[in-house]
Amino acid sequence: MIKFIIRRLIQTIPVLIGVSIVVFGLMFLIPGDPAQIIAGESASQQQIEQMRERLGLNDPIPVQYWNFISNAVQGDLGSSIRSGRDVTSEIMLRFWTTVELALYSTILSVFLGLIAGVISATRHNTYIDSGIMLVALLGLSMPNFWLGLMLIKYFAVDFGMFSASGWGEFRQMVLPVITLGTSGAAVIARMTRSSMLEVIGQDYIRTARAKGVKEQIVIYRHALKNALIPVVTVVGLSFGSLLGGTVITEQVFAINGMGRLMIDAILARDFPIVQGTVLVVSLLFVLVNLLVDIAYRMLNKRIDLD
Amino acid sequence: AGNDTNESEDSTAGEEGTAGGTLIINQSSDAVSLDPHGSNDTPSSNVAYNIYEALVVQDQELNLLPGLATEWTQDEEDPTRWEFQLREGVTFHDGSDFNAEVVKANIDRILDEDVASPRSFLYDMIVEINVIDDYTVEFITEYPYAPLAANLAHNGGGMISKELIEADYAAMEEGREPGAVINEGPIGTGYFKFENWNPGQEINLTRNEDYWGENAKLDGVTFRVVSEPGTRLANLQTGDAHISHPIIPSDVGQVEAIDNLEVTRTPSVSLSYFGFNVEKEPFNDVKVRQAVSMAINKDDIINGVYDGAGIPAIGPLAPAVFGYSENAEPIPYDVDRAKELLAEAGYEDGFTTTLWTNDSPERTNAAVAVQAQLAEIGITVNIEVLEWGAYLEQTSNGEHDMFILGWSTVTGDGDYGMYALFHSSQHGTPGNRTFIDNAELDDLLDQARRSSDEQERLDLYEQAQEILIEEAPMLYIHHQEFLLGYRSEVQGLVQTPTDILKLNEVTIQ
Amino acid sequence: MKKELLKVENLKQYFPIKGGLLGRTVNHVKAVDDISFTIYEGETVSIVGESGCGKSTTGRAILRLDEPTAGKVEFDGEDLLSLNKSEMRKKRKDLQIIFQDPYASINPRQTVRQVLEEAMIIQKVLPKDKRGDRIRELMATVGLGAHQIDRFPHEFSGGQRQRVGIARALTVDPKLIICDEAVSALDVSIQAQVINLLKRLQREFQLTYLFISHDLGVVRHISDRVIVMYLGRIVEIADKKSLFTNPQHPYTKALLSAIPSTDPEKKKDRIILQGDVPSPINPPTGCRFHTRCPFATEKCKTDTPELRTTDFMKEGHQSACHYMEEIKAGTREPNYV
Amino acid sequence: MSTNSETILDVRNLQTSFFTSELEVKAVDGVSFKVPKGKTIGIVGESGSGKSITSLSILRLIQNPGKVVGGEVLFNGENILEKSEAQMRKIRGNDISMIFQEPMTSLNPVYTVGQQIGEAFQIHEKLGKKEAIKKSIDMLKLVGIPSPEKRVHQYPFELSGGMRQRVMIAMALACNPKLLIADEPTTALDVTIQAQILELMKDLQDRLGMSIIMITHDLGVVAETCDYVAVMYCGKVVEYASVKDLFNNPRHPYTVGLLNSLPRHDEDVEGELEIIPGSVPSPAEMPTGCRFAPRCAYASDICKELPQLEEDENGNQIRCWIYSEEWDGDPEVNVYEKRTT
Amino acid sequence: MSQEVNTPSTSSPPPVNPRLESWKTFFKKLRKNKAAMFGGILILFFIIVAIIGPYITPYSPNQVNYSMKLAPPSADHWFGTDHHGRDIFSRIIHGMKITLSIGFVSVFASAIIGTIIGIISGYYGKRTDAIIMRIMDVLLAFPGILLALAIVSVLGPSIENVIIAVAIFSIPVFARIVRGSTLSVRKLEYIDAVKALGASDFRIIFKHILPNVTSPLIVQTTLSIATAILTASGLSFIGLGAQPPSPEWGAMLSDGRSYLYQAGHVALFPGMMIVIVVLAFNIFGDGLRDALDPKMKA
Ligand SMILES: Nc1ncnc2c1ncn2[C@@H]1O[C@H](COP(=O)(O)OP(=O)(O)OP(=O)(O)O)[C@@H](O)[C@H]1O
Ligand SMILES: Nc1ncnc2c1ncn2[C@@H]1O[C@H](COP(=O)(O)OP(=O)(O)OP(=O)(O)O)[C@@H](O)[C@H]1O
Ligand SMILES: [Mg+2]
Ligand SMILES: [Mg+2]
């Protein structure tokens, strides 16, 4: 297993290189010139030329890529075209906020999703089941901006219980975490339910019952563990995507996270920041998926990853 | 509580507020750079305005007033020579003195190709800066350039401590980006000092106790980034912020309905327009352009899309801008005539065209409104939304048929308001995306910027506007009103037509 | 005259045991540890032995369901382990297995019809229009009714499922069938039917069986030769008669004495094996049976006995015990405590 | 049947059906038998005759679409079928436990065998995790699994068929149940281990007075362990007798057929094994009368009616017209004569 | 040995097509599932509305009327009007087709591709798995907007291209889910059993592994429809997908964002419709799952 982990960590290198090449390629493929975006609606040709020169944008693309990658290997991701700030520090400034936000939201969605899914499965085809699934689907179909703004309206403005913006204090964290956790919870609930339904009819569940095991324990220990594989997958996926893409929630709650940094950078064609954030997010993704694979093995020893 | 257009100005004269407190302003986006030479966006300007001062200041009506320069003259003999007398006894936040060397260092920096300032176009007619004495500085321009003082009033002309500039150059030697050092600790002469900046989140300023003029009343200002309009509003309601800059038109009614919130409406120097690509069919035919212009009911658009926040535009210049002509005759709203014109141009059955817009909801909405109105005269418009970067590039390449953009005459001078947009030398990226090429117009614009006679300039601009209305390279939609939401306890707030908040008189009750 | 159909040489199958949180391989289960035997065409060879001694593993290894750790498996003169995937796939028509656990080895989402039809499709044994009849025929053959044809596995009783497994193996007309406890879940009357059927098929089509079973009655009835395994090794191999009437290895003797009798009155003198049952994880040195053997000596602890034959054994009867002669002669007393 | 000894389980006219899409499958159709305290009763019979379903019904573990549709199951005089789920839980695993027929699928693939055996201790004896594992090791040792300290941490798929089965046995015996239902507990075991396991059960029975229902096809096992035997055919008990009587004097034609089919291990029999001709009727074609009649060599007209389970003076029961007054066939018929083994 | 046993059963039932038969039972089970029928009928209804709806709406979907701007629901405008005074009800009906096709096509395309990738990855394991999954990691971690921008710039703006973009985003999601479940079934004994029959990998994958991963697959597919619609609306802002004034629901929903407080109905109705559509697919998916599960009561 240690070998496996090490091997996986080594595999991240080609992943990162792949990501950076694709990002680089795409950034040049898509129209839009950072110099022009910085200048806005008006900028003389000469001025743009100067800026491109300064930014090294006139070098051949392979040269640019080489410059980037050789610096990156030394831990230098360059500096932002727009603000001139160091990319690493721009990312670190937001890194933990994003990780926290993703983590708390995932915890919330796992907690809610599992409970709802299990209850639904055990009450298959009852009103409780339908009710829970209806709520889950509402949660899923609700766009984040809508949910976020509604939460703000009621819980921040009308009741004054929580803050509408920012990150750090408990008051500020509640609403965004709920906003982000809801759709995840819905997916997890649905996944858990269907997966549980597969498992509940198995012989070993009958065996557990025959032992006199309490129904709760039958469900939560014997059935759930068997049902978790697809659930763990979606948890990993949603956690991963939260790390990379919480833009809307970040915007609604004025949270200074990596999602917005990345999107703003893409829109401003701020290559170094885009590269930096994408690399960090990919790294996180690979790690999360590594954890997911380890979780698979923990859940089912028959799954052989080596 | 509702506030009318001009009340904000009056509130300056309102009851004296108690000094102190920190004002929290929610902005829609973060400053890009606090190097005044290194950015070109409103949030940056708004913060920088409080830290740096320029040689010249504009007041509410965009009149030029002494700033760091106490007086200035354009040489009558040689209109390319300007002399500025500097204010004495001004120190930077780092304690260094403000003098002629500083001015030279600043302007040189803006024009330095290595720095590649996005503001350089404001000053690129300056060929030489001479330090006459400690407090006198001389500018030599390439050609006579009347609006120089107005350009120097622009925030891009904010004066940075010379030591800081040198430190920044030193850092550039080490491979850092220009402006990196300035950004980390901006030093100007303004009534607020930079305290800290948490990029993407907030910028804090504190009062400069050693200000040469009257000290600001607030202890400090915080500029926060809250990009979601609904959240800005919520923060305003809960008191987490004092000012929402801006609020969206559709929220005005709601803000006005809340007891302790107020709205100000400030007429702006900006223009929103639909440009035609005059090099492409069918818009190479002036009749078509006129027909389209006639088919549009601007009031409908202003009310429908902008919730009434703005006035219909006749030509490119807003009333507050120097050079605005009151005599210019607008193209009337006349659908029948529009159809005739189309028929004359050979399009009696109309035609199909595309209209580009970038991903701003307001522009998209305007596009929809225009689309509906043009359908009346048989023109089928397909709207295509483009992402900003692509939009800028593709419109400057002339790949479009029709497009929507805006223009803000930040210097308040007709030169800024028209030269880049319409001079044939400015095709593409510099601003002329309609690709209009009219020798007479070029001539007028050239003359107007060179003349040092105000009246002559006004006449020239009036002629230019007449041509522009007649030629209709673009459909001038409206001059926007800036909408600001604030809490009633904020007093003495001033917003300029260039979207700058002046905070020196502001108090919190 | 006898054609070698299957030849297993020095087959080994070790499973890693993973331990600790991170699942390192801490040890190996030596499930099958160096066994060799030959099966001739048209005969039935049974493997009997202690549970867990590696019978099923042997079967699986022959079919390459688990890749063996070492050894050689020759089928019809061809080395199975050297075949590539698609060659092996074709070979599988000739080599079938009836799994020990009938339920786990049938896809719970397939009806019996689908299970059987699939086997035919895979090996293209019959044209489409003939398959339905053949399926019903097979069902009847194993004693299932036509009404059960569209049922899912969970709708069957244990014995019925096992019959589905048998039918599946028969579908493709194989040459060799490995029957892993193929009839253990059947009631005796059905069992009799199935055994009769297997024998009849053998007669008619020269079928060959590797029959793994605990039921020595069945083994005695069906086999030609019997292999006795103990802890991953073969301890005795002989033709049926010789084995049942003249067992040599102490383990074989113990095994035979433990067969329950259908006569409730008959009291039996069983050889009760002493000592802890050793495990294939750390198999005993020397003779693997020595920890429980009543005749064991120091020599048994160190020297591994080879399969050999003695003059009082029939030809082809081999056993792996150091003391066959002495025990036979009665010079070696069991040391029961 | 000895009426004087105490009865721990009394199954009366138990009926269990599966409601499949087409029709009702009457898997158990009026089964009755008694289990005396401390005794072992064997259930043998046709594969698919409802033995497993009967035992599952007793524990109330029948799953959808199956349902117990009638009858009573009296455990210590109380009808189990009327108990609440909570009461049922106390009974399961503690008072009545069961060894399932399918050891692979009946074990949870994601827990080690130790965890699964230990759970019974944790629930019913309230032991801690560590102690439970310790006791599981003891149990594994008891059922003859080598190096139990290692095996206890293995997963079901890592065990051989016989080991899995022994794990099931260990699990069922963990809490010393009053009644053990063993559904083919030794099919996957070699005879030495089988002997050991049967010994173990006997021992527990002697020490704790445990009663056993032994479902098996191995008539040898029946002969060795059971006191009474019930023979089932098509969801019904056709014969119930003490083990001696059954083997020495089988009365039902089906029982005789069964005994005849047995392969011999003590002598070589050439040729084919004897079988019962014909096959089990499908539920749709289920005879209304005696269910064995279509395959029965003696069947006569009266067999078109359903015979009742009649008890004789020894307590043995038989469901066959031959032994009744109304018998209309050959009056001289002697079923036993047909016995060949 | 008595021959009766071995001859084919005398009462041989009439020949039936087995595949047809299993479909029949499948449909029978599906039909009996009330919820599934309800979901199915709803979906059918939506499809019908999408086809004939546009001919019977009370207003033209793009009829701008600023005097009726943001009117609340009334007898004239059942769902009220939007910020251009357009009738929301008519717009929803007109937008049905485009919205459904975006949601449906993109999800199905990605589900199919993702499933194949995931099964192959999980089934073959080892190297294959490592390579495929790392590629999926790249795709997952990759900012979607960048990909979308690239697609517009290369392929140009169109509905088809937004479908392609959304499909590409969701491929790795399906791939990972399917792979996870594949890992847990590939070692089961019945897989060995068909292997022993000589089944090709192709058959094992599609006949034996696929049916066992359908349950998470169905869930993810039905859920993704919602996400796809919402994602597509996000992409319309950078020029991918439905361009204004197209009444695509996601775009309508986003339009409502500015009027959430003073005219909630602008966002509410398209949002509600998305919920209903997603609900219908999910209910139907659940029924499908039940019908595919042999252990579920028919
Ligand atoms: N879920 C089900 N649906 C329909 N029929 C079923 C179901 N489960 C069992 N049956 C039927 O019920 C009957 C009795 O099954 P049971 O498992 O009790 O048999 P058994 O006597 O234990 O047989 P064996 O000795 O083969 O295990 C069988 O004919 C079987 O086909
Ligand atoms: N996948 C596996 N991983 C680890 N150990 C295994 C695995 N499969 C089998 N074993 C071990 O290999 C040994 C032999 O198992 P096998 O199934 O061949 O026994 P068997 O002779 O068939 O026994 P039985 O008669 O009980 O079925 C056992 O000790 C078992 O625990
Ligand atoms: Mg085995
Ligand atoms: Mg059974």
UniProtKB/TrEMBL annotation, chain A:
SUPFAM superfamilies: MetI-like. Pfam families: BPD_transp_1, BPD_transp_1_N. Its main location: membrane. The chain crosses the membrane at residues 12-30, 101-119, 131-152, 172-189, 227-253, 273-292. GO terms for molecular function: nickel cation transmembrane transporter activity. It is a multi-pass membrane protein. It comes from the Bacteria. One of its GO terms (cellular component) is plasma membrane. Signal peptide: none annotated. Residues 95-296 form the ABC transmembrane type-1 domain. It is found in: Cell membrane. Keywords: Cell membrane, Ion transport, Membrane, Nickel, Nickel transport, Transmembrane, Transmembrane helix, Transport. Coiled coil: none annotated. Belongs to the binding-protein-dependent transport system permease family. OppBC subfamily. NCBIfam families: Opp2B. The complex is composed of two ATP-binding proteins (NikD and NikE), two transmembrane proteins (NikB and NikC) and a solute-binding protein (NikA). This is Nickel import system permease protein NikB. The lineage of its organism: Bacteria, Bacillati, Bacillota, Bacilli, Bacillales.
UniProtKB/TrEMBL annotation, chain C:
Keywords: ATP-binding, Nucleotide-binding, Transport. Residues 6-256 form the ABC transporter domain. It comes from the Bacteria. Pfam families: ABC_tran (PF00005), oligo_HPY (PF08352). This is Peptide ABC transporter ATP-binding protein. Belongs to the ABC transporter superfamily. InterPro entries: AAA+_ATPase (IPR003593), ABC_transp_ATP-bind (IPR050319), ABC_transporter-like_ATP-bd (IPR003439), ABC_transporter-like_CS (IPR017871), Oligopep_ABC_C (IPR013563), P-loop_NTPase (IPR027417). One of its GO terms (molecular function) is ATP hydrolysis activity. The keyword Glycosyltransferase does not apply. One of its GO terms (biological process) is transmembrane transport. It comes from Alkalihalobacillus alcalophilus ATCC 27647 = CGMCC 1.3604.
UniProtKB/TrEMBL annotation, chain D:
Residues 9-259 form the ABC transporter domain. The keyword Cell membrane applies. It is found in: Cell membrane. It is a peripheral membrane protein. It comes from the Bacteria. It holds the Pfam family ABC_tran. One of its GO terms (molecular function) is ATP binding. InterPro entries: AAA+_ATPase (IPR003593), ABC_Ni/Peptide_Import (IPR050388), ABC_transporter-like_ATP-bd (IPR003439), ABC_transporter-like_CS (IPR017871), Oligopep_ABC_C (IPR013563), P-loop_NTPase (IPR027417). SUPFAM superfamilies: P-loop containing nucleoside triphosphate hydrolases (SSF52540). One of its GO terms (cellular component) is plasma membrane. GO terms for biological process: peptide transport. Keywords: ATP-binding, Cell membrane, Membrane, Nucleotide-binding, Transport. PANTHER family: DIPEPTIDE TRANSPORT ATP-BINDING PROTEIN DPPD (PTHR43297:SF2), OLIGOPEPTIDE TRANSPORT ATP-BINDING PROTEIN APPD (PTHR43297). Belongs to the ABC transporter superfamily. This is Dipeptide/oligopeptide transporter.
From TrEMBL, chain E:
Keywords: Cell membrane, Membrane, Transmembrane, Transmembrane helix, Transport. InterPro entries: ABC_transport_permease, BP-dependent_transpt_permease, MetI-like, MetI-like_sf, OppC_N. It is found in: Cell membrane. It comes from the Bacteria. Residues 96-285 form the ABC transmembrane type-1 domain. One of its GO terms (biological process) is transmembrane transport. Belongs to the binding-protein-dependent transport system permease family. OppBC subfamily. This is Diguanylate cyclase. It comes from Alkalihalobacillus alcalophilus ATCC 27647 = CGMCC 1.3604.
